[in-house]
Amino acid sequence: MINANQIRDDLKNIKYYYTHKTVFEEASQQLGESEVMKKVRIYNDIILSAPPKFYDLYYSLYMSGHTQESLSAKLCYTREYIRLLNKEFIDYLLKKLNEKENISNAN
User: What predicted TM-score, i.e. pTM, was given to this entire model?
Assistant: First the structure.
């Protein structure tokens, strides 16, 4: 079973991937696909059916590279609200990823 710390690590790696997406895409032509690219597909698949607030948060924080502080300023929210929203988001991902894993293990 995946835990919240693994999700945080995945999200950091996903953010790094999107910051350097061109390099990953070019390198994958010669080296093969990085594990982070597989994770991106898994997380993106989950996000497509996520509540709009999590869809927006994922795009803003992890795909567009905002920090929690810069996003709070952009949206006129407190940093604490963004932090709490991100915690809810991680809990949501935890639930969805563990459901996905349980389905895979059942088959």
Answer: 0.91
